[in-house]
TrEMBL record:
A Pfam family the protein falls into: Porphobil_deam
Subunit structure comment from the entry: Monomer.
This enzyme's EC code(s): 2.5.1.61
Gene source species: Arcticibacter svalbardensis MN12-7
GO cellular component, one term: cytoplasm
Known cofactor(s): dipyrromethane
Protein name: Hydroxymethylbilane synthase
Keywords linked to the UniProt accession: Porphyrin biosynthesis, Transferase
Keyword set includes Acetylation: no
């Protein structure tokens, strides 16, 4: 029987009949339209908006994305969570999960499910010990939370100025500013708690950054959008307009990468009627076929800056110490690393999208230690150059690249380039056609277009989620 206001109606009735003076709500449970005579006097500081995937330890498979075993049963009653989970793990079985946070966790403990997904904010506020489970924290830019997730709303009767003034000591205006965007998006979609809608807004360096995910139903494939703006004025309206059924999408995209039929990017494009021409314009070749065990001696960290580096390295069957830690540039590399049974201890995508920013943070974590960098011959060494004096750096070229010749022109509406080498190979024989738009993965790829004086879009994240958002946002 749940619907709009299901979790909040009784408290609001208490305010209206004067039996209470203040109601404290989880803000995401509040309908976007307040009952006449009531106002939100203050909002709390935002608790961490990450989602938590709690997995029974005997149901963990780290080779799978999100670490739930293939075909596992995941508990959630949220259509938003269901749509986003099935988009990246269509093999999972999703079953309803109801009750408060301790009740939901007890159901997992009783092995009614293999895993459950819940908001980190509630678990943290209750101080629940999760050590008996394998816990995966999912970043809100990857798994987009409910509007206002992690925020408390303090509601009072309208006109009670004295109480309103007192409560301003609890009010966080910066939080109110960003969740107002999220809630406006929800309102414009006329959505309630059952709509498969996620919206997360934050303010970085004076700009509003907003991620939105929306599906038609819980088992439908969601469309995703990332948008950045200098102002919140009209921002929610711009976001909602991008999801209009009447909006025209590109008919075809070209990408310098082979795209499997099971990939997230292919499914995201096909869901919007967009065809894909995927072909790599570079060839890779191994440089070595055997690894000297001495190179791996006393290694503290191994840092990978590409998926190719990971695949070529593990194909050499390295014998690694259990104390060795792994660092990767982003989510795409993490997925590749997981296929070899390893989970990164450092993922640069959690620190920023600029390689220089990632390098600075990695230097803070691993500076002064012994670090191995398997990679391509002639790589830019951006991360290595940021490491402090005293760090023992071992560069290990394990593959090299060559450019394809006589690359066929693409007439697609959108061209996506995944590396500087692919840009070089394509423009050796071709020019950009009028009306074609360009998306680049990474700033080093974008610099090639800066040199040519051509404009391009840079996705927030250099993985298939980010690429899908970028195409959808054009």
């Amino acid at each position: 029987m749940e619907g709009k206001g299901f979790f909040t109606k009784e408290l609001e009735e208490g305010l209206l009949d004067n039996s209470i003076d203040i109601a404290v709500h989880s803000h995401k449970d509040l309908p976007t339209q307040h009952p006449a005579g009531l106002i939100i006097a203050a909002v709390s500081e935002r608790e961490d908006p990450h989602e938590l995937l709690l997995i029974l330890k005997d149901c963990v498979d780290i080779k799978q994305k999100l670490s739930v075993k293939y075909g596992g049963m995941v508990g959630t009653s949220s259509n938003r969570r269901k749509a986003q989970l099935l988009a990246v793990r269509p093999d999972l079985e999703i079953e309803d999960l109801r009750g408060n946070v301790p009740t939901r966790i007890q159901k997992l403990r009783d092995e009614d499910y293999d895993a459950i997904i819940i908001a980190k904010a509630g678990v943290f506020r209750l101080g629940i010990d999760l050590s008996e489970f394998h816990v995966e924290e999912i970043d809100p830019t990857e798994f987009i939370p409910s509007p206002a997730q992690g925020v408390l709303a303090i509601q009072i009767r309208e006109g009670n100025q004295e109480l309103y003034d007192i409560l301003q000591g609890l009010h966080h205006a910066d939080v109110a500013e960003v969740i107002a965007v999220e809630r406006k998006v929800l309102n414009l979609f006329n959505g309630g708690c059952h709509m498969p809608l996620g919206c997360f807004c934050r303010k970085e360096n004076g700009k509003f950054q907003v991620w939105t995910s929306k599906a038609d139903e819980g088992d439908s494939f969601p469309s995703r959008l990332f948008i950045e703006s200098d102002t919140a004025d009209g921002l929610a309206e711009r976001i909602v307009a991008k999801f209009s059924k009447q909006r025209k999408h590109p008919s075809k995209v070209f990408i310098t990468r082979e795209i499997s039929e099971y990939s997230y990017f292919r499914k995201a494009m096909e869901a919007n009627g967009i065809s894909i021409d995927g072909r790599s314009l570079i060839r890779t070749f191994p440089i070595i076929n055997k690894l000297d065990p001495y190179i791996l001696r006393d290694i503290d960290w191994i840092f990978f800056n590409s998926k190719n580096a990971i695949e070529y390295f593990f194909n050499l069957d390295p014998q690694l110490s259990k104390k060795t830690k792994f660092g990767v540039l982003g989510r795409a590399s993490e997925e590749t690393l997981r296929r070899f049974g390893k989970v990164p201890d450092f993922n640069g995508e959690e620190e920023g999208i600029d390689t220089a920013e990632i390098a600075k943070e990695f230097a803070r974590v691993a500076g002064g230690l012994k670090i191995l960098f398997p990679g391509a011959k002639g790589s830019l060494r951006t991360v290595q150059q940021m490491l402090p004096e005293g760090t023992r750096i071992i560069d290990l070229p394990i593959y090299e690249t060559g450019l394809e010749e006589n690359v066929e022109q693409s007439h697609a509406d959108v061209l996506i380039f995944t590396s500087p080498s692919n840009v070089e190979a394509y423009f050796e024989d071709n020019l950009l056609e009028p009306g074609q738009k360009v998306i680049c993965i990474g700033r080093s790829t974008g610099k090639k277009f800066d040199e040519m004086g051509l404009s391009y879009t840079l996705p927030y994240s250099p993985d298939e989620l980010g690429l899908s958002e970028a195409v959808f946002g054009l």
